[in-house]
Amino acid sequence: MEIKFEQNKDLTSLNTFHIKAKAKLFATYSRVEELHKISFSPEFMENEVFYLGGGSNVLFNGDFDGLVLKSEIKGIKRYDKDSETVFLIAGAAELWTDVVDFAIKEGLAGIENLAAIPGTAGAAPVQNIGAYGSEIGEVIHKVECFDVISHNTLTLTAEQCRFGYRDSIFKNEGKGRYVVLRVSLKLKNSNLAENLNYGPLKKLKEKLGRTPTISEVAKEVTEIRNSKLPDPAKIGNAGSFFKNPVVRIYFYKEVMSTLCPDIPYYETEDPYYVKIPAGWLIEHAGLKGFSIGDAEVYPQQCLVIANKGEASSGDVIEVASHVVKTVLSKFGVVLRPEVNIIDSEIKVTILGSGTSKGIPEIGCHCPVCTSTDPKDKRTRCSALVETRGVRLLIDVSPDFRMQALNNEISYLDAALITHNHYDHVGGFDDLRPFCANGKFPIYLRPDVNADLHRRLDYCFSDTHYPGVPSFEMNEIENAPFMIKGVRISPVTVMHGKVPIVGFRIGNFAYITDAKTIEEEEKEKLAGLDVLVVNGLRDKDHFAHFTIAEALELIEELKPKRAYLTHFCHEVGKHCDLERRLPENVFPCYDGMTIITK
Ligand code: EPU
């Protein structure tokens, strides 16, 4: 069983956006044994891995500097449980449209509303495909997967898949871990369609004067889709670019509908939340047909961004960012992409680079505190890390509100906390806007969690004041963990006598408030492209690296580039500090961006 790894594979025909991109490495597998073998190969272990289905929900932003794996597991079979129930089992590589056609020919009801959705059967449960009143999660019996961490095959029930609106375990903790091999659908042995709640399907029943057949519903759905959505064979697109936002009902009533009383909404399973059609918001923000280069907000369905010809991923992303900003300023709602944006790049924004008192210090008239250079204005330390469409905040400084406003941070996926000192957690209450769509995830040490429960008791009590922030506290060990497919490796460092956490993401690491680091923790920092590390001042401090100590660490770890942060005013002016640092070491400043892989 020889696995062939292709190099520099052209992905243009493998994504329905028709965006030009290449993968450093590419391989396919048609049996689980092959995937098992791949998962032990150096190509797999030494690279970032992306699992490609039909490429109908993906935007490659530049070449992919890793391994792309594509399933070739085929086959569609029916197993009759009894006269009423039939299980339909499809290999991950089967086209979803072929699965629907098979079910219709065999007279099996349950997926007719999901006709004509591009993509593969394997990708269908990942994003819980849904349309015209149905979602695949409602008919999933089981999903057979390969776990690339334990190297075992496992079968998840629908409940274990934790389906939500365009969401599942495969987009969260299972992302990059569980690879779908086969899906098993529980269908009804019947030619009659059942789910006719969607308006136009109700009308079809009225028009026919009887219950439509599954074939009639599939035909109607295909016609509606064709009238609204561009055919990816002719116009590059990935279906809905954004998800329909789910917001708290009080926000809808108190804010949105006062801005514009006509905004439609749909009820959700949770009585406290409603879903707003993003296409409506985009159209009513005046963005129908808005374009940059060949990327366009598709006029017939504004939820789609179309590639009219030669659009680059940059054009698509610029259109998407403009849509997000405009909708946010008009309706106060943040749209989140439904499309999977694949990016090997890591963008770090230094939100704050000052020590606990910030610069200027209150009441100080030294040359640094009175400097007019914006780089000498330092708020308390924190950073924003953006990679693969995921936005992570490191620490929530007391200056977080201004940092978020200055850097236009309107959405965050989670926050990572280094330790519980006030200058790193004092802005927690200002995370409120990020809790509008549910509990905001925080990743932190158990001792920090216990302390924050005490300090922020009003956020955790059973009967709390409406509108207080709500957090999902995830305790971390000193071992790697995943957030939406991004692998985070904690590194324990000593802040004086207190153990705290630094974080490594790819070849980037962020360490603050360290004074010493044990040898085995230092090993986790080998081979870095970028290290951000604290260097308080020249004079010794019991709990912080001095500039000289930080430079010693940099000399030892040899990252390609290093950036110093967490400065106090005694460090001098930014411009003087910049001059005296070695060639590959730079002082951070607030608002600085660092791009790496
Ligand atoms: N609308 C507008 N302007 C637009 C688009 C929509 O005013 O440009 C309004 C419509 O008039 C309607 C409402 O928004 O009142 C909803 O529109 P539609 O029924 O077309 O559905 P959607 O919410 O925009 C979702 C799915 C589609 C699915 C349709 C039909 C998401 C992200 N998208 O779109 O799925 O086909 O419902 O059920 O939930 C996909 O995921 O790629 C996809 C195409």
Explain what you see:
- The chain is of the alpha/beta class and about 600 residues long.
- It contains 15 helices and 35 strands.
- The strands form eight sheets. It has a seven-stranded mixed sheet. The protein has a seven-stranded mixed sheet with strand order 28-29-30-31-32-33-34.
- α10 links the parallel β25 and β26.
- It is globular, with a radius of gyration of 26 Å.
- The two termini are about 35 Å apart.
- The mean pLDDT is about 95.
Short description:
The chain is α/β, with parallel strands linked by helices. The chain contains 15 helices and 35 strands.
Labels describing this entry:
alpha/beta, 35 strands, binds uridine-diphosphate-2(N-acetylglucosaminyl) butyric acid, seven-stranded mixed beta sheet, 597 residues
Architecture blueprint of SSEs:
Blueprint: E1 6-10, E2 22-29, H1 32-38, H2 42-45, E3 49-52, E4 58-60, E5 64-71, E6 76-80, E7 85-91, H3 96-105, E8 108-109, E9 130-131, E10 134-135, E11 140-147, E12 152-157, E13 178-189, H4 199-208, H5 214-228, E14 236-240, E15 246-248, H6 249-259, E16 266-267, E17 273-275, H7 278-284, E18 291-292, E19 295-297, E20 304-307, H8 313-331, E21 340-342, E22 346-352, E23 382-387, E24 390-394, H9 400-406, E25 414-416, H10 422-425, E26 440-444, H11 446-455, H12 457-460, E27 471-475, E28 481-483, E29 486-495, E30 498-505, E31 508-511, H13 519-522, E32 530-534, H14 547-557, E33 561-565, H15 574-580, E34 585-587, E35 593-596
Parallel strand pairs: 2-5, 3-5, 4-21, 24-25, 25-26, 26-27, 31-32, 32-33, 33-34
Antiparallel strand pairs: 1-2, 6-7, 7-13, 8-13, 9-10, 11-12, 11-13, 14-20, 15-17, 16-17, 18-19, 19-20, 22-23, 22-35, 23-24, 28-29, 29-30, 30-31
